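Task 17 of the worksheet. Students: predict the tertiary structure of the chain below and write it out as structure tokens. Keep your answer in the requested format; marks are given for formatting as well as content.
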Amino acid sequence: MNRYPVEDDYQPVTWIGRHPVHITLLLVVLHVAAMIGGVILLAFGGDAVFAQLGFSSRGVVRGDALWSPITYALLHPPNLWFALEMLMFYLFGREVERYVGRRRYLLLYGACVIVPPLVLAVLSPLFPAHLAGSSLLHLGIFLTFAMLYPTADVFFGLQARWVALALAALALLQAMAARSPGDLVALPATVAAAWWILHSAGFSVLPERIRARPARKRTALRTPAPKKRVRAEEPAHDPEEVMDRLLEKIGKEGLSSLSASERRQLEQAREALLRKE
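Model answer:
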């Protein structure tokens, strides 16, 4: 049975003037602050302390640095890739948060942080593994977005599913080239944790037939709203028609444009299509 959170769960945490402050923005601020703190720590000779914050599977099994399954995600180099990572996380993490609500989003994010090191700790008798940084974590958040909206256009007209597939393949190839079994395990564990949270909360990904079907009209993820908007109350009995209409609206106006009634229609259409499968 689907469970719908209260409307407050879809609202910003607070407002700064006219600007909403979501959980994703607060997490970006946390990561940026951690990056600055790490730079200051290294500048004053705190290399040993910095190293203790990284995750080591066999070290955790021995009882050393038990905080590292959380702190590893806060180790960042001050470079352009970190800035791009934070930008992608803000853009797509915010959309995931708006869809699932901030409480479930926090649960999903926490699971994506903690599950990979726990899995690697269990596998430590087979191979040692180390984790530092949040690149795989935030790639997992983008893959979560792609699971929810595989046909949304994100980069240069490319659909999210193809971008997600390319980035995941690139990350796995990079891990293979670096001979890093930890990274090879961490990314699938992150995606599995996100999928489990969505599934257990009653959110189902689109069925394969819908995932493989191209959108009727490709649009950017955020474009100006059309002059004529489809009313939320407009009846539509065909679940495919409902799905197409709402996905097109999301592609044009963003996930936040959906009303509570339209969110329910989207979930009901998904259930109907899954039953047909």
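Marker's comment: The longest strand covers residues 14-16. The two ends are 18 Å apart (CA to CA).
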